Structure formats: C-alpha cells, structure tokens
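User: What would this chain look like folded?
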Amino acid sequence: MINIPQNSELLPKGPADSARPPPASQVRYRVLGLTFLMAFLMFMERGAIGAAAPTIMREFHVDKISMGWAISAFNWSYALCQVPGGWMADRFGARIILAAAMAWWSVFTAATGFTFSAFSLAATRFLFGMGEAAAFPAGSRALVRWLPVRRRAFGQGFQHSGSRLGAALAPALVVALIALSGWRPVFYIFGAVGIVWAMVWYAYYRDFPPDHPGINAEELAILGTASSSIPSSVRRVVPWKAILRSRDLWYLSTIYFCYGWVLWLYLAWFATYLREARHFTQLGTGWASLPLLAATVTNVVGGLLSDRWAHRWNDLRRGRLMVSICGFTIAGIALLPGVLTASAITAIICLTIALAGLELTVSVSWAICIDIGGDFSGSVSSVMNTWGNVGGAFSAVMVGYLATLFGWTSPFLLASGLCLFSALLVSRIDPRRPATELPIREYKTSRSIPV
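Assistant: Here's the prediction, encoded as structure tokens.
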C-alpha cells in the first residue's frame, strides 16, 4: 500500500480550491448580540425598581401613591426625550450616542442606591429615564448598516427579545440579590455592568462596516450597499419636515400607542390582576413572568416570519403587514376568553397567547421604521416610540381607575378593542414609501442636504 503525503503544499490545487472565497466574517452577529444584551440590561434595570419597591417603601416610610409618583418620573422623562435621543443617534452616530446613553443611565441606576427619600428617588429616576430614552432609537439606528434588508425584521425582533427576557428574569434575580445583600447593592451591581457594556460597545462597534477591523469583503458583500460610508463633506441634516408629514409614520405611531397601552397593562398591572381577580398567592403571582417569556420567543419569530415572507413573496409590504395583522388579531381575540373565563388556568393560557401575539408585531414596527427612515431611522423610530410610551404612561393610570370603578374585566376588554383597531389600521401602511423625502417641489437649495 502506498502512503500519499497529506501535506497540502505537496498536493496539486484544482481551480475550484484556488477560487473558493474565504467564509464571511461574523461581525454583524456580534453587533446584533451586543444590542440584545443592551435591551436585556435595560429591562433588568427597569425591573429592579419594581422588585425592590416594597423594601424601599418600608425604609423610606412612604405609601404606594408616593412610590408610584416617584417611579413614574422615569416614564415621563423617557417619553419626552425619545425624539432628542433619536435625533442625536442620526446626527452623531449610534456608536457614541448608545455608549453615552448606557453610561448615563448606568450612573443613575447606581445612584438609585444612594437615594434617601421619595423625592430623591423621583429625581434619580427622572434622570435615569432621560438617558435611557436614546437606547431603542439608537439601537435601531445601529443596525441599519449592519443588517441586509432581508434580515432587518429578524434583527429588530432579536434585539427587542432581550428586553422581554430581562423583564421576565428581573423579579426573581432582584429578590434573590436583595435577600443576600439588601436592595442598594442591586443597583450598584447593575450600574457597574452597564458601564462595562458601554465601554465594550464603544471599543467594538463602528458606524460604518468598512471601518471595522474585523470585517472582510465577503461580509461587506452580504451587507450590500447599506454598509457604504457617507462622504465627510456632506453635512447630515435630519429632514424633520418630511418625517413629520409622513402618514405612514403617524399610522405607525397610533398603532404603537395602542401597543404601549396593552403592553403596560401586563408590565404594571398583571401581577396585581392575578392576586385580586384570580386570587393567586404572592408566590403564585410568579406566573406573571410566563407571558413575558412567551413574548421573548415571539419577538424573534415575528421578525423571522416577516423577513421570510417578504423574501418568498418578493413583496416587502405584504411580508411586513401580514405579521402585524396576524399578531394584533391573535392578541385581540385571545384577550376576550382570557378575562371572561372562570378558570384561572385557562385565563393564564389565553392571556399568555394574547401577549405572545402582540409581541409578534414589535419587530415589524421597528423594521418599518428602518424601511421608511433609512439613515434617519433613529429619528423616525423615536417619534413612534414616544407615542408608545405615552400609551404606556396613560395605561398605568387608566387601568387603575378602570379596575376600581368597573372591575378588572373592563381594562382587558379595552385592550382587546385597541388590538383589533390596530389590526385594521396597520393595513394602511406602506413600508416602501420613504418618510424622509418631500415632494420635489418642496426641496429648497441648501448646502446642508438630507442624505
């Protein structure tokens, strides 16, 4: 038997071997993973205050009303600063803005551990919300050049699934940490982790893929023209006139207001609903995490379905809207038996299905912001997210009044109606219609032009 040398240098190379290109680098997935971790930490830090609230109230000697006002300071600053945060991401790039935003809110997360009264807590949470407001608009903007069009909805879904996972895991983790070391160290730990993330993001991310030292030509080819740089001689001006006149954006913002209202019904009140309406014990209210765990999965599934259908049908509009229509319809229908059934177990199952259906729509909404916003998707998504958080703020207040005056069935019936209304309204959106372009006759000659 003849032994043939296996040294590759001694073997002749065929044309196929010499022409085979190297595999594409995987920088885009690492960037996506960092944005997932950003959303995860973001909602872990949000969830920490809710889990620590009973302990803080006892230490500060405040009632639920005072504590509610202190915590709500976050919601209002978060909503008010969405547009400035999105504008800065478009103007200065997601690399610096997202790192600065994470560092800002991590500092005030840690500062929460130094508070000593309801007023100092409210001030800290207000400043916390100001920093966090830039997170999702800048996170959305960060993916514009790092994902091809056919993967945008998946990218948004994967990014936002981190937030739902963080919200689901925060209560158990925070309670365990409080038992070990008290409530103040929880905020010190979360603040320190956020600072580390900010440094890693700034060191690794680049606003333009060709500038990244780890990317190769094969990955740039996958990203396509979206990865190209903008000449430094061109001044980037956000075309607010065009953005605010986009009917698609206002349809989307109305839908996201409804989405925010229903989401915060779960985030702020679901555990209370389980205790008061379904008579669960305090331990039993842990079931409140089940819908959020399901939402973690459907965030990703919604994006995958939208991208796949858009590619299969060669129709971006159909691929985007079909997922949203299905998601809102599932949510609107499942909410009804969920709140009307006499069985607590059936209620949990149906209400979990309802939130899972609702979360199918999230990745599509944010992908549409990229579709119609392009390089200005940070500003476009900030408008949408502002209205989503206004809906959430109203929900936190209205649900309390509705449940008190009319019983727990009424807020869920209203939520069902909002979902079904959204399923109808979303059909009027066209993601192929840019939100950053005015009719030609309305452009004026200027050295500062939108790009």
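The first helix runs from residue 15 to 19. If you want, I can go into more detail on any region.
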